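Database export, one record per block. Field names are fixed; values are copied verbatim from the stored entry.
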Amino acid sequence: MPFVSLTDWNHFLSQHPNAHLLQTGEWGELKSAFGWKPVRVISGHIGAQILFRKLPLGFTVGYIPKAVIGNQLSVSSDQSSVNSEQFWNEVDSVCRNHRAIFLKLEPDSWENLKPDTWNLKLETSPHNIQPPRTILVNIKDDEDTILARMKQKTRYNIRLAEKKHVVVRAWDDIESFHKMMLVTGGRDGFGIHSLEYYKRAYELLHPSGLGEILLAEYDGKPLAALFVARNGNRAYYLYGASMDEERNRMPTYLLQWEAMKWAKAHGCDEYDLWGVPDEDEATLEANFETRHDGLWGVYRFKRGFGGELKRAAQAMDRVYNPILYRLYVWSIKRGVSE
């Protein structure tokens, strides 16, 4: 079996520098501390980091987020086809050894793939783990050009924060960041990770320059913070929090702008705002002023930064236990209908 160590996986990724953040060794190590087991598989020029989650009775679910790395989407040559077949044979073997009911694949693509992609029998999944729709901001150009693409109100709020003496700096007070996340989650009604999760994420991503926590403060008082991460040419807004006080100083706007500048300084040319309601643009624009549930609460804010609405490819499932898989699909559909 071509299982590889973390060191070998990182060496493989050095040949694919623009792989998604969720395929990095650091991300796999983060998830390994919170209930997932990362297994890295390489065959030829193709590789993937698979995450396994334990289920009752010894079963698991396999998950490849933002996969797969290498030449797997190009099967124009006989050699590519051979490499792809060998790779997926190894993946199947790994999944069966882990008693996986199914393997969920979320391709690193903005276009849906056909169920027979990679010459595999795949099911179009009813469920994505990552938010499928996002806003992607182009940060290739100079700062004035990036600002010019933003909504006028967003530019105004960025400048207002500066005029009102909001300052943004790097921050390593993870406990205070977590407390701020608790305030935000309670106010806006979303779940947050544990303190240990944010600590581990920072310990893994920050030393290698892949992550930073930025704090917006006024007169030494913390107002808002965010966790930004990057890999290759892409940066990601992972987590954000704000206090209830001094919101008229618009700290979150300046915070996002400084995160974009941080990403640009590290060689990124796009900034992923990571998660808006899974609706088309017409529906989003018609409803964002009246809806505040779920991700609707952040769409109004994120839309102002001049990005492009994008939808990731729908997840696909490779089924190993059809009976239990049907139970999974039934539970997902039941949850949606309720």
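Remark 1: DSSP finds eleven helices and 14 strands in the chain.
Remark 2: Residues 23 and 267 are 19 Å apart (CA to CA).
End of record.
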